[in-house]
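Re: the 530-residue chain
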Amino acid sequence: MKNNPVQPIFILPENTQRSSGKNAQKANIMAAKLVAEAVRTTLGPKGMDKMLVDSLGEVTITNDGVTILREMPIEHPTAKMIVEVARTQESEVGDGTTSAVVLAGELLKNAEKLLESNIHPTVLAKGYRMAAEEAIRMLNSIAKDVSSKDEDMLIAIAETAMTGKGAEANKQVLAKLMVEALYITKGSIRDIHVQKKTGGSAEDSELITGILLDKERVHSGMPISVKEAKIALLNCPFEVRTPDTDAKIQITDPLQLQAFVDQEEKMLKKMVDKLEESGANVLLCQKGIDDIAQYFLAKRGIYAVRRIRKTDVDALSKATGATIVNNIQELTEEDLGTAGIVEERKVGDMIMTFVTDCKHAQSVTLLLKGATQHVVDELKRAVDDALGDLGAALRTGKLVAGAGSPEMEVARALRKYGEGLSGREQLAVLAFADSMEIIPRTLAENAGLDPIDVLTALKSAHDKGSVWAGIDVFTGKVVDAWSHGVLEPLAVKVQAISSASEVAEMILRIDDVIAGGQPEKSSVPDFSQY
């Protein structure tokens, strides 16, 4: 009997692509490194900007890491995992996205060398996990306390966050406005609303003790400005209620139609009377306001705005002290909020309503101005990062210096920690220590300095006990970053290390990539030939 050859067995569809072993690991690490390289040149005070053009031709110019990665059309699954690091960093602490991505890329780059030396990926993952825990412990030990009373420190945090971004030229002015807003809202970053408008320059930006609405008054006969405003906040339509079910009314006489119209007018007039009885001279409504009601409101000299967003209504309640009322018939004088002035102003090419000079405001607005839309967009991104840093600093109450000093101190401590280990994990810990130096190295490279000279000088300073020795990218010298006011929240550094190490561990443990084929498109007959 002849031996029949073994028939090959296919367990995956025909179009499926599969790579495994070292090929899969190399491909994944390469994808991660490419993402890190894409944003690396934006890091630090001397970082460069990226111009991103989408499929519709919309242009974004920024050096904000998470914005760049969000706008880039990334397809590779591993690269998307690195993008998630930036998004997590942004959502958790509001800043440090570029540092987290660059660190993740460097961890995988150094891990690749150890993989080539036949160090098992699980050993690397364990070593990285041990190193991350030690790094975070080290950072906590050197961090210093900060509270809302430390105004100078808070200003320094905001200025550090804006250095190297579009807001750098006006960082002193903007930092003071942000800290002032922080005091008014009693440390609640969520109650600081950032609005951006083209026109003027960044130094024309202002802090408004109240709320800005991108709405205009509903009737031209209403006053443009109302001083000593008493504000009614409505969460219901200022209209005659329509029936919930379909109804049909048969009219046989024109007088009946007129009676309906007259009755509706009476009801609307009664609603306006109720509003006026409460003492309100400003109506801010989340829903619609009837055209006839607008006329009556204008005759009574009441300023009214309609269709306000729910988030703005909540902010107005905090700013003015007004109670949000769901039924106009329940409105009383106690429900009214107050503001020094409510007025309609033109900002750039938009007409807006300013609710300002609120005496007991718990919600404020930071109005940013810039020459062009691109400028003001980047200005807002810088301010959002600074506010994120301030929030993280007050939330944890801990600070570290910047300028690459904490990374160098962590790298030094990890090398000492690694020397006490006996297993192969020691190699992973030392690789982690080398990876931490990518931050000061990148700062030096982006400033046009020699990274070898800079790292050598920094290592020497840290070995002598100078914990906050960092690089001044403007002079190229090693300085005490803390005394120079380069301050960052501890939470930003901890989150960056935690996120970067976790994603590196996950990618290292992948040894097989199975990509399903694209589903076949349904064929559509071509009738053009007939």
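The longest helix spans residues 254-277.
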